Amino acid sequence: MLKLAAIQVSATPDPARNLRKAAQFLEAAAQRGARIACLPELFPLPWFPRERDPVHFELAESPEGARVTAVADLARQHQIAVVCPFFERAADGLYYNSALLFDSRGKRVGLYRKVHVPDLSLWEERYYFAPGNLGFPVFEVEGVRIGIQICWDNFFPEGFRCLALAGAQVIFVPTAAAFASQQRWLAMGVSHAVANGVYVMRVNRVGKEAQQDFYGHSFCVKPDGELAAEPIGGNEGVLLVDFDPREVERARRVWPFLKDRRPREYAAVVGIEWGPGLLEAEQKSDRGAAELPPSGPSAATAASDAPTSPLEGFLAQT
Description:
This protein is an alpha/beta fold. The chain folds into two domains: 2-254, Carbon-nitrogen hydrolase (Nitrilase/N-carbamoyl-D-aminoacid amidohydrolase), CATH 3.60.110.10; 263-316, no CATH class. The chain has helices at residues 15-31, 66-78, 157-165, 182-196, 245-254, 276-290, 299-305, 310-316, and strands spanning 2-8, 34-38, 81-89, 95-102, 108-113, 139-141, 144-148, 170-175, 199-204, 206-208, 213-215, 219-221, 237-243. The strands form three sheets. The chain has a six-stranded mixed beta sheet with strand order 5-4-3-2-1-13. Strands 6-7-8-9-12 form a five-stranded mixed beta sheet, covered by helices on one side. Strands 10-11 form a two-stranded antiparallel sheet. Helix 1 (15-31) runs parallel beside helix 2 (66-78). The longest helix has 17 residues, at 15-31.
């Protein structure tokens, strides 16, 4: 077992001050035995997506930027892996709502870009961020396979399922949620944890800002749907929980949802219409594959590797 930490902090208009505060909480988490910690969505910055203002693009930085590098230094200094959300200015000229994962030596392990980008009052994110283009990668630190979903991603189960199928054991969800939505968030966290047999750790921003009151309430749900510890309330603090990989194995054995999936029946999820014609094409493809001679590679074998129907192409990805 090892300890995971949710670092629940508020933000001021001063990024340097926010970073110093996060450093204090990371140090405290490490001193209490945490091996992997996660910070809230866009934690070094005030919640600028509350409005559309081109001046806020100046807050973005590259994955080698000063604030990101400071977090990598903290990870190395305190020997703790860190999920570091930030406002990314990418080399392709686009901007993303992203999170970097650093290991306990401060080395970059991987990058996730928020896939689902909302366009809501006070969450005017599409003005700033392009949808993520890196898929749903799984990273490994401290012997734990980790996935990341950022805020609005939480309401789309497909990302969590992709991460679970790729081997994730823990999914961190840094967020910036305000007003009275905590019960929805908890309900979704329990659902994702149970359906996929994973730990789900939600790490929320806290504190009153210009137009929003971020309520905190960071929590961690175990694979059996039970809370790993009491959620933090509406104050800054650190939530520490024990991660046990045996809990993941046990949940997936007792509730084998991943094993009982039926990908062939989910074609509509990717916009493929299921019908008699598609079924006939699939059956014809299956018969053709069964009739191939059991010899070495041949032109027929190579041809059979290519999808012959939309459904076959879909199944090749699942």
